[in-house]
Amino acid sequence: xxxxxxxxxxxxxxxxxxxxxxxxxxxxxxxxxxxxxxxxxxxxxxxxxxxxxxxxxxxxxxxxxxxxxxxxxxxxxxxxxxxxxxxxxxxxxxxxxxxxxxxxxxxxxxxxxxxxxxxxxxxxxxxxxxxxxxxxxxxxxxxxxxxxxxxxxxxxxxxxxxxxxxxxxxxxxxxxxxxxxxxxxxxxxxxxxxxxxxxxxxxxxxxxxxxxxxxxxxxxxxxxxxxxxxxxxxxxxxxxxxxxxxxxxxxxxxxxxxxxxxxxxxxxxxxxxxxxxxxxxxxxxxxxxxxxxxxxxxxxxxxxxxxxxxxxxxxxxxxxxxxxxxxxxxxxxxxxxxxxxxxxxxxxxxxxxxxxxxxxxxxxxxxxxxxxxxxxxxxxxxxxxxxxxxxxxxxxxxxxxxxxxxxxxxxxxxxxxxxxxxxxxxxxxxxxxxxxxxxxxxxxxxxxxxxxxxxxxxxxxxxxxxxxxxxxxxxxxxxxxxxxxxxxxxxxxxxxxxxxxxxxxxxxxxxxxxxxxxxxxxxxxxxxxxxxxxxxxxxxxxxxxxxxxxxxxxxxxxxxxxxxxxxxxxxxxxxxxxxxxxxxxxxxxxxxxxxxxxxxxxxxxxxxxxxxxxxxxxxxxxxxxxxxxxxxxxxxxxxxxxxxxxxxxxxxxxxxxxxxxxxxxxxxxxxxxxxxxxxxxxxxxxxxxxxxxxxxxxxxxxxxxxxxxxxxxxxxxxxxxxxxxxxxxxxxxxxxxxxxxxxxxxxxxxxxxxxxxxxxxxxxxxxxxxxxxxxxxxxxxxxxxxxxxxxxxxxxxxxxxxxxxxxxxxxxxxxxxxxxxxxxxxxxxxxxxxxxxxxxxxxxxxxxxxxxxxxxxxxxxxxxxxxxxxxxxxxxxxxxxxxxxxxxxxxxxxxxxxxxxxxxxxxx
Length: 908
Fold this sequence. Notes:
It is a single chain. The chain is of the alpha+beta class. It folds into five domains: about 35-90 and about 645-730, no CATH class; about 165-290 and about 565-640, no CATH class; about 295-345 and about 530-560, no CATH class; about 350-510, Jelly Rolls, CATH 2.60.120; about 840-905. The strands form ten sheets. It has a five-stranded antiparallel beta sheet. A three-stranded antiparallel beta sheet has the order 9-4-14, with no helix packed on it. β7 (about 400-410) and β8 (about 415-425) form a beta hairpin. α28 (about 860-870) packs parallel to α30 and α29 (about 875-890) packs across α30 (about 890-900). The chain starts with a helix and ends with a strand. Mean pLDDT is about 85; it is low at about 1-35, about 345-350 and about 510-515.
């Protein structure tokens, strides 16, 4: 109930926003025509200006040399001097090692490492510690968690049903691997946008595009509502909006989504820009896709699948040629003859038929049509209703209340149409599955169409369904057997429902083909069909192609099983959730929507991007460009060295995670609604240095954490506070609160229970109830002692609609939205959670057991617990107080007190 209420509130807010935008916004084409957002003044904004390396400031004579060894310090110190601020002294070594450990790997140092570093007087001890931590595999786990916040990665779809995504985790592992390998940033960006196109034979190329599918996805709007319906169009519009927003927020720190309903009110982003960006993703959906970890296997599979596609196309062409020459029913006749000879030994085959798409009302027109190949005698037509147990309907399921049967020699039924039977004036009784027979001696036609003018009722909707249509000539030959079927629409869900079922010879009440047709008639029919097959070698070619196809498919089956990742992909799909084009991958037409309304399309636009960056506006693609080329063009635009947004954005994000605040304190918004940089020259210097210096994130980390600015203490200064109480200009280090994941991982670590295993499927710290529809993720039923759940928190299964209560209380990121900066709150609920949560209680008990094994003396146990949890030795009075508490309440409860200390939750 709580989740549904929250969804209703969010929906209400969203609808209100749309209404407000609609009331205040002119139509799309009008806005685009009258936009003044391309005026020079609108482009004169710091984030849009070209990147130029600024000169490093010269420090005043007499400045201590240690203050200016790092370029970062020169920029910061120059700003401090201009504001008449004094830098803080360097923090002590115990503080520095704890700061570095949590910043770089997200775990506390063990007491032995703390003591060794504190005692190490070597001049390069700090730098060697930095290098060791950056080389640790835990570095990738720590920094991947930051990245997953920004890209709103989750492992359920969200929305109403919030079904799980069991194959989302390979993208998470890709991010960890990319950080640990120190992948050049441009490659990292390109892989996530178009890796499957640029590097299709690599594991990273395929798993990286999990980025495109990282956000929420409306299962009902995509899989249960056809794209032709308004709700289906809205769902896909919002899906593309999420893809565009994820790309632009993450990589360029811009908020283009505001231009969905109107030109951006503050930044130079037009509606045309926005819809051109959505056109980049016009063919993409989200689904599971296969990949191979071995590039050689990937190449072999790709080659075999290419051959398979070519052979299937050749077979289809030959089949059609054979069909056109009169042999379309040979295979079906052979099957029916064999079944008739086998008699009662034949196993009955389930029979359903053809089923239209559902309708909310009964008075809509739906039709189904059979192509007999050439004009055929229509001596006798038999049609049979369906049997299905949906809501107890049973026999006659989907049989129309009013309908007509027509014949024509033109597939469009625009002319030369003869009504053979009309039942449109009054509703007809439902015949169940009793065959209905019509006789028309002497009539001929190629096409036969059944049109329903009043659909059959189901429970809350209406449909049209038939099981079989048979068209006999005077010799008893069924010319409809195997005939192609088209329809106004169709639910294709074989083997139950498909167009092909309508002419396959099976229908309710029969265990094999039409039992009324004797064996002799079937054999005569086959002989007639064989006489009409052309003798141009088609059958021989078909046999050869079929054998080649069997060989290729056999080779495919022998390859090692492919792995699966949930990612952006093209696909054929089925039912309502299907791709575009015969094999998927055909971009949908994209229109500028007046006020973002799918029912008010304006002019069509092709793929492109924003046009406010000087020299990087080219997007040389036509409107009919293939799907893959669109994303490659966007990836190249993002990583163009002349694109200042990309390089400013990433260095600002890295700075923020080290210093607690970005040089721009709105990491996802570099526009006019965001914040100005506090150190613009430093930001640009870092961006140019990063872009031109190899794009190594580890080098950027090393540069920042070895600066004296980073190594300052958190100690306050009254004089400095009078000038800069918020520490915008970095005269001291910011004290930072640990994220929920770091708190949980630290508890496991100091308790000696942390499982260091990396990668693979996520662990679930919940029990799923009612998984078949809208799962309930019950966290209170999970046992914290389960060893499978004692891995690092980055491997925790992330649910969107029902967050983990303990983690949410500690300000864990919401995976339904891009989180560029975690909230830092302090409240009583957090203290209660750290005191009473099952995990906290269990880990406090294990911490007590761990220190008890090392010493029988209570005071020593307290010292060891404090050293593990706080990375320092406790003071004498602290030992006395905690030991006394432990005597009265037990050592595990004293460890719970330690978990509640601010010093445990914060990094100085």
